[in-house]
Write a structure and sequence with these properties.
It is built from 10 helices and 9 strands. The protein has 305 residues and is α/β, with parallel strands linked by helices. Heterodimer composed of a glutamine amidotransferase subunit (A) and a GMP-binding subunit (B).
């Protein structure tokens, strides 16, 4: 386990040395990784930093408002409303790796636009060690590693938590005094709900995944999962009222893990699963059925794409 005070001091020194007298933008998603990286960078170089949160339309329910409230102490925070641009980019894209690359390029374009506006030469990211391992091992591309375009308009990319595992990042978050809503929150993929949608990403599917994930997170809080969410798999027939419908199939996933490198599907009570399916199908008329994923990692990954 990393010695947090020593790590924080060394990380800030590394950031100051890398950025020097230049300006930088911080990719802030609201997850613990990017929040720690952003806080370290902000404390290291202050007003040389412009934190950038990009609302892709693929975020958790209420995420954007939470970001504004949690990081209001960063006066230079910019919230970019980019939903239409990301959905336009993803139109017709069905391959999982292509999705990740499209999203990675979209993020970089947004960051480069802000960087030109504030004359920033550096990009700070919350890449952690498992991101690098999975991208380098061709398990999947992360939007902030393998999903980046080959050429970016930055002098350098700074990744202060690149050698940490998730549990170590949480320790640093607590030491930095970040709120529990950040330090203890479940992991959320950089590409957002796009990797919880099998096939083409559309606003309708994103809404289904977002609302269903919100239900899962609420209902499984007592189980304290490493990660729990809902994914949209495709369509199947169902019955609502007296009508036959062709609605979405939603998969519920809940796993236990230490660092995300391996994971075990949680054993949930039948009554809990029934409550979840009842809420998801009852609260969204376009959902026809709900299934529970019992696959461990390996052979599956935690996310669907």
């Amino acid at each position: 386990m990393v010695e947090t005070e020593e790590f924080i001091a060394e990380a800030k020194a590394e950031i100051r040395e890398a950025i020097g007298d230049a300006n930088a933008v911080i990719a802030l998603s609201g997850g613990v990784d990017s929040s720690v990286a952003a806080t370290l960078a902000y404390e290291a170089v202050g007003d040389q930093l412009t934190p950038v949160y990009v609302d892709t339309g693929l975020m958790r329910k209420g995420e954007t408002d939470e970001i504004r409230d949690t990081f209001d102490f960063m006066e230079s925070l910019r919230v970019i409303e980019a939903q239409d641009r990301f959905f336009d980019r993803l139109e017709g894209v069905t391959d999982p790796e292509d999705k990740r690359h499209v999203i990675g390029e979209g993020f970089i374009d947004e960051f480069e636009t802000v960087a030109r506006d504030v004359d920033a030469d550096f990009l700070v990211q919350g890449t952690i060690y498992p991101d690098r391992i999975e991208s380098e091992g061709n398990i999947k591309s992360h939007h902030n590693v393998g999903g980046l375009p080959e050429i970016v308009d930055f002098e350098g990319i700074v990744e202060p938590v690149r050698d940490l595992y998730k549990d170590e990042v949480r320790e640093v978050a607590r030491e930095l005094g970040l709120e529990e809503i950040i330090s203890e929150r479940m992991p959320f993929p950089g590409p957002g709900l796009a990797v919880r949608i099998v096939g083409e990403v559309t606003p309708e599917k994103a809404d289904v995944a977002r609302e269903a994930t919100h239900v899962v997170e609420e209902e499984l809080e007592e189980y304290d999962p490493w990660q729990a969410f809902a994914a949209v798999l495709g369509k199947a027939t169902g019955v609502k009222g007296d009508n036959r419908v062709h609605g979405w199939v939603v998969a519920v996933r809940s796993v236990e893990s230490r660092d995300g490198m391996t994971a075990r599907a949680q054993e949930l009570d039948w009554s809990t699963l029934q409550r979840i399916q009842s809420r998801i199908t009852g609260e969204n008329e376009n959902v026809a059925r709900v299934v529970y994923d019992v696959t461990h990692k390996p052979p599956a990954t935690i996310e669907y794409e």
